[in-house]
From TrEMBL:
<keyword id="KW-0813">Transport</keyword>
<feature type="domain" description="Thymidylate kinase-like">
    <location>
        <begin position="498"/>
        <end position="664"/>
    </location>
</feature>
<feature type="transmembrane region" description="Helical">
    <location>
        <begin position="157"/>
        <end position="176"/>
    </location>
</feature>
<dbReference type="Pfam" id="PF05977">
    <property type="entry name" value="MFS_3"/>
</dbReference>
<feature type="transmembrane region" description="Helical">
    <location>
        <begin position="29"/>
        <end position="51"/>
    </location>
</feature>
<keyword id="KW-0545">Nucleotide biosynthesis</keyword>
<dbReference type="InterPro" id="IPR036259">
    <property type="entry name" value="MFS_trans_sf"/>
</dbReference>
<keyword id="KW-0472">Membrane</keyword>
<feature type="region of interest" description="Disordered">
    <location>
        <begin position="679"/>
        <end position="732"/>
    </location>
</feature>
<keyword id="KW-0547">Nucleotide-binding</keyword>
<dbReference type="GO" id="GO:0005524">
    <property type="term" value="F:ATP binding"/>
</dbReference>
<protein>
    <recommendedName>
        <fullName>Thymidylate kinase</fullName>
        <ecNumber>2.7.4.9</ecNumber>
    </recommendedName>
</protein>
<feature type="transmembrane region" description="Helical">
    <location>
        <begin position="63"/>
        <end position="83"/>
    </location>
</feature>
<dbReference type="Pfam" id="PF02223">
    <property type="entry name" value="Thymidylate_kin"/>
</dbReference>
<dbReference type="GO" id="GO:0004798">
    <property type="term" value="F:dTMP kinase activity"/>
</dbReference>
<dbReference type="InterPro" id="IPR010290">
    <property type="entry name" value="TM_effector"/>
</dbReference>
<dbReference type="InterPro" id="IPR018094">
    <property type="entry name" value="Thymidylate_kinase"/>
</dbReference>
Length: 732
């Protein structure tokens, strides 16, 4: 399952955003990000307007906007890695303060100097300072959050702020400042020759000064380090420790960064995937204008395609958290890049504007999902000591590849002469944009496959099962394996669960033994006795609360780390017991169990098939069931096993504990043979032959397809079995 609380993932987008914005340090950083983003967009517009005032040269005036953009973009090509080194080596808060003060001083000096050359030089240096600021900010964000699973929502809010609200605010502020003179009828000589243009740049500089003051006085938490250590089971598990960077020189840190990337498959796949995605994005940017004209829709088609891409991107950013509930981030990233490439191929082959609009929206949606997933992986699965450098490399690749591909695409387009063809009665122009977009789509799809194979942490589990969960809107399965032992007596299930866990520990996987919290957990007894809970319904609710706690505290973390969890009487046995003994409705209990466990179900359930007559004769020695109730519990468990044959094996539980333990281990090995790697080999017990379960007893058997379909297919259909059990329990 996804890291963190399932309840968190069930929240709406608005509630998740509110929960993150409720964290004061992050909320203040978000406000600072707003100021700096508005200043960035305002600088682009304000400096463009100012440079046109400085000269009457027509060529230089036409070059104004391109020159401002290039001088802001060029530092990212040169200095982004340096920003990452500073973020990992020094106090990130101090780095951000120094960068903001530098931007303030540089922009403030532009109107004072009054030279177009200094304008471009200062803009370049301010862009370099921004490359120091961004990696530190991105690397610090996870340390401001309460839980690692909030990184995704924090990134959503950051992207919305930078490319949404800040764009509108910056453009609106520029329009207000430049239009105030005309609107109020003020004389052009009132502010001097460059008065309004200079005022825009001065205000721009003051925004950076305000950012520096807020960071210095209101967000000391930016200096925090390693608040949420990356678990050993995540991306860095196969890498060497990065060590203490405080004692490492810059050259050594550079070598360390590339060594980390080379050894860490997750990061390597992430960067490979984004290189292909950025190249395809550059192809789209460079070919967008001539491609829109080739569709025959006139100038309006370019605007429509532009809107379609960004609407799709916004939708992709919005749905990523929901998709991540059903598909792991490492898989979601590769799948998103592949789908973006395939959608771009459709754009290249599209015969009509309507088809192009839908495909362009799909490209934007998949690319947006991939980008957000990538920055989420960096924020949540990269060690804090390396996060700044990886963020910087990520940003540097973004600028280098998009800059290079955007500049190269027009040349490639010019190599193909336009040809007119008629498709479905519509005249289309086939020019160089089609092969360029087709090549970009093929490149993105190919690189997405490579990234997926590098990053996938669940190679033993088929991707089709996860994709089915996405289409069916079901929670994705965890990395580990959950085996439950069900039966009528907790004494037998507890003893055999411990024996099975010991037997499986001889394999490669970690094995965790979990006990039934509903029957013999001390916390439950304390809750029931302390609150004087006497009714069966109240005790069932208390048991559900304890079960939810042990699932979240013990079982889910173990499953997420890839361990095998063996648990006695997970859901079905308590459900059958409460239904038979307390007379509670089985379907209501099933719903309560689903809610308490977030619909977590075993990959394999082993039913201990005991002789009801023996239980009656013993008089229910364990206090669980006696007389007719024992028969009723056994009947309900048998019905549950029959209703869900893909997950159940039934084992004869009559005989000595050693014989029963051998039968259980053999049945588990047969059911999961070849499907789940890393389990122990079949035990050899001295004193008697260790054959199949049928050799021990004619009643020992595996029902249905548990031994043939295996746990992999069971992971995609576990909820179906739960629904069937609920129906069967109600009918019984």
């Amino acid at each position: 399952m996804a890291a963190g609380s399932p309840a968190h993932h069930e929240m709406s987008t608005t509630r998740r955003a509110r929960s993150v914005l409720g964290i004061r340090p992050f909320r203040r950083l978000w406000a600072v990000t707003y100021l700096c983003s508005v200043a960035d967009w305002l600088a682009m517009l304000g400096l463009t307007g100012l440079v046109t005032k400085y000269t009457d040269d027509y060529l230089l005036q036409n070059f104004a906007f391109v020159g401002v953009v290039l001088t802001q973009l060029l530092p990212g090509l040169l200095f982004a890695p340096l920003g990452g080194l500073l973020a990992d080596r020094f106090d990130r808060r101090k780095v951000m303060i120094c960068a903001d003060l530098a931007r303030f001083a540089l922009l403030f000096s532009i109107p004072i100097v009054g030279s177009p050359i200094w304008l471009f030089v200062a803009n370049f240096m301010a862009g370099s300072a921004a490359m120091m600021w961004i990696p530190s900010k991105d690397a610090a964000v996870p340390n401001l959050l309460r839980r690692p699973d909030q990184v995704e929502t924090a990134n959503q809010l950051g992207l919305f702020m930078t490319y949404g609200l800040a764009v509108v605010s910056g453009a609106g502020l520029y329009s207000v400042l430049t239009g105030v003179q005309t609107t109020l009828g003020i004389s052009p000589d009132a502010f001097g020759e460059f008065g309004v243009a200079n005022a825009v740049v001065f205000i721009n500089a003051l925004l950076y000064l305000a950012s520096a003051l807020l960071i210095a006085t209101r967000i000391p938490e930016l200096s925090l380090r390693n608040v949420h250590p990356v678990p050993a089971s995540t991306a860095a598990q196969d890498t060497a420790s990065s060590g203490d960077d405080a004692d490492v020189g810059f050259i050594a840190m550079v070598r360390q960064s590339f060594s980390y990337i080379r050894r860490t498959k997750l990061v390597r796949g992430l960067l490979i995937g984004m290189m292909g995605a950025f190249a395809a994005g550059g192809a789209v940017i460079g070919a967008a204008k001539p491609y829109s004209l080739s569709l025959g829709g006139g100038e309006a088609s370019f605007g429509l395609l532009f809107v379609a891409v960004f609407v799709g991107a916004a939708a992709g950013l919005a749905v990523v958290p929901k998709l991540a509930r059903r598909l792991p981030h490492d898989r979601l990233f590769g799948v998103g890049i592949v789908l973006a490439g395939l959608a771009l191929i459709v754009v290249a082959l599209s015969p009509h504007l309507a088809v192009s609009l839908v495909a362009a929206a799909a490209v934007g949606g998949c690319a947006g999902a991939g980008f957000l997933t990538g920055v989420t992986i960096i924020g949540s699965q990269i060690d804090d000591s390396m996060r700044g450098r990886i963020n910087a490399i990520y940003q540097s690749l973004l600028k280098i590849i998009i800059f290079g591909s955007t500049a190269t695409v027009p040349v490639l387009i010019g190599l193909v002469q336009p040809h007119k063809i008629t498709v479905w009665g519509n005249e289309l122009i086939i020019d160089g944009t089609r092969p360029v977009l087709l090549g970009g789509g093929l490149l993105a799809a190919l690189v997405g496959v490579v990234a997926y194979r590098q990053m996938d942490s669940r190679r033993t589990e088929p991707i089709l099962a996860d994709l089915r969960n996405v289409m069916r809107r079901r929670p994705r399965r965890v990395n580990g394996l959950l085996i439950a032992l069900e039966g009528t007596t907790e004494t037998d299930t507890g003893r055999q669960a411990a024996r099975l866990a010991d037997a499986l520990r001889t394999g490669e996987r970690d094995v965790v033994l979990a006990t039934d919290p509903a029957l013999d957990d001390e916390r439950l007894r304390g809750i029931v006795s302390g609150a004087s809970l006497s009714s069966a319904r109240a005790q069932a609710l208390a048991a559900a609360a304890v079960r939810a706690d042990i699932v979240e505290r013990d079982i889910r973390p173990a499953l997420d780390s890839g361990a095998v969890v063996v648990m006695e009487r997970f859901v079905d046995s308590p459900l059958a017991h409460l239904s038979a003994v307390a007379g509670l409705d089985a379907s209501e209990l099933e719903g309560l169990a689903d809610w308490a466990t977030a619909r977590l179900r075993p990959d394999l359930a082993v039913l201990l098939d005991t002789d009801p007559g023996a239980g009656t004769a013993e008089g229910g020695a364990d206090g669980t069931s006696a007389g007719p109730q024992h028969w009723r519990v056994q009947q309900l468990l048998t019905e549950m096993a029959s209703a869900d044959p893909q997950h159940y094996v039934v084992v004869d539980a009559d005989g000595s504990p050693d014989d029963v333990a051998d039968r259980i281990h053999t049945a588990v090995q047969c059911a999961l043979a070849g499907k789940v790697p890393g389990l122990s080999a079949r035990r050899r017990k001295s004193g008697h032959a260790n054959g199949s379960a049928s050799q021990d007893s004619p009643r020992a058997r595996t029902d249905g397809a548990a031994g043939t379909d295996g746990a992999a297919e069971a992971q995609a259909t576990d909820e179906t079995g739960a629904d069937e059990r609920a129906t069967q329990g109600t009918a019984s």
